[in-house]
């Protein structure tokens, strides 16, 4: 579902974003996000994939203002977040919303669904109680739920229904960007497709931009126009979904794709298996040079010494790897190939 990014208005432009946390164990800082740049356009979905701990949620939380950047700049509507007044900041908080993996997270168990739907509108202000009620009920219908669901409580709904309510909650706020953090991961596999379709329909109707975070590539590939692959706080590859899936340029992307559990979705079936050995190193003490070199079958002495440049090897397709070329990676060195069965 690749859509050309050209000529669309960026909703957000992120330059050289870094987010650091104090580390309790090592005394040094955890570089959760370390120099990441991208933009997301109106109506576009940017998928963000990577193993656990690679910085995906930290990027998402920073986009919606739940975390402050340690370095770098976020620009939306041509304005840098650093130069914003309190009023502009509040408007941004409303325009940039987040939906979490846990469908219960934003729903108060003591409130009816109607109260949960009205709550964000109350905070935003400017509408009468009757207006808020009507809008809440309309929003329920927009996400495919009956109006009488409004009188129920959280525990009376299935996971899929709760995630629909979470979408309905943000619709009246007229968001521009929604960060979707593992939004279908907690749902039964049988209803994931339905909920993903709903995300797509809502996007089309409202022209929303999504940052769609997940570690399940087949989910991200179904909904994203472009995909960013994260490793230890950095992007290692960014490109159109078809390019990332069919013409991957980075060894880590190749490994992630080949690690998909069987049976592979049709778009990944031609992939050979490449087993990624070792754990992801600590972001408090990342490896020198290319951060992936400790696990990379293509790694040479150069990779341990020198950080690879972020290069656009094909139009709109960026990668950070010393060895890859516009044609892709060279054959895997024979001495590092996994044994064949
Ligand atoms: N508030 C925090 N304080 C200290 N370290 C943090 C904090 N939040 C995240 N981290 C660390 O930052 C790194 C990136 O975490 P993050 O949650 O962004 O990764 P992720 O890719 O979203 O992982 P997951 O898929 O498990 O959610 C991890 O090493 C994590 O332990």
Automatic annotation (TrEMBL):
InterPro entries: AAA+_ATPase (IPR003593), ABC_transp_ATP-bind (IPR050319), ABC_transporter-like_ATP-bd (IPR003439), ABC_transporter-like_CS (IPR017871), Oligopep_ABC_C (IPR013563), P-loop_NTPase (IPR027417)
Keyword Nucleotide-binding: yes
Gene3D superfamilies associated with the record: P-loop containing nucleotide triphosphate hydrolases (3.40.50.300)
A GO molecular function held by the record: ATP binding
Membrane topology designation: Peripheral membrane protein
Start and end residues of each stretch annotated as Disordered: 321-341
Highest taxon above the source species: Bacteria
Localization terms from the record: Cell inner membrane
Domain ABC transporter intervals: 12-257
ATP-binding listed as a keyword: yes
One cellular component term from this protein's GO annotations in UniProt: plasma membrane
One GO term of the biological process aspect: peptide transport
Name by which UniProt lists this protein: ABC transporter ATP-binding protein
């Amino acid at each position: 579902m690749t859509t050309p990014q050209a000529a669309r208005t960026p909703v957000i432009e992120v330059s050289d974003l870094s987010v650091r946390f104090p580390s309790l164990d090592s005394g040094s800082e955890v570089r959760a996000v370390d120099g990441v740049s991208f933009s997301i356009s109106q109506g576009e979905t940017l998928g963000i994939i990577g193993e656990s701990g690679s910085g995906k949620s930290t990027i998402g939380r920073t986009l919606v203002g739940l975390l402050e950047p340690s370095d770098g700049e976020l620009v939306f509507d041509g304005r840098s977040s650093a130069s914003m007044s309190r009023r502009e900041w509040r408007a941004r908080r409303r325009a940039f919303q987040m939906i979490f993996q846990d469908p219960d997270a934003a729903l108060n168990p003591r409130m009816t669904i109607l109260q949960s739907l009205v709550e964000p509108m109350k905070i935003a202000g400017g509408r009468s109680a009757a207006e808020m009620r009507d809008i809440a009920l309309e929003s329920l219908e927009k996400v495919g739920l009956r109006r009488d669901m409004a009188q129920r409580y959280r525990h009376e709904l299935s996971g899929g229904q709760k995630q629909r309510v979470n979408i309905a909650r943000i619709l009246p706020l007229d968001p521009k960007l929604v960060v979707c953090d593992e939004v279908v991961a907690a749902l039964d596999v049988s209803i994931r497709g339905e909920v993903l379709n709903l995300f797509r329909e809502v996007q089309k109707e409202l022209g929303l931009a999504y940052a769609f975070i997940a570690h399940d590539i087949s989910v991200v590939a179904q909904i994203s126009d472009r995909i960013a692959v994260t490793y230890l706080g950095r992007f290692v590859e960014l490109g159109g979904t078809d390019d990332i899936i069919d013409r991957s340029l980075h060894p880590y992307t190749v490994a992630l794709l080949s690690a998909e559990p069987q049976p592979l979705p049709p778009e990944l079936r031609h992939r050979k298996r490449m087993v990624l050995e070792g754990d992801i190193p600590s972001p408090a003490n990342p490896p020198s040079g290319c951060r992936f070199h400790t696990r990379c079958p293509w790694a040479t002495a150069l990779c341990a010494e020198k950080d690879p440049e972020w290069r656009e090897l094909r139009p709109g397709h960026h990668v950070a790897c010393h060895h890859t070329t516009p044609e892709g990676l060279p054959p895997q060195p024979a001495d590092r190939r996994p044994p064949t069965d």
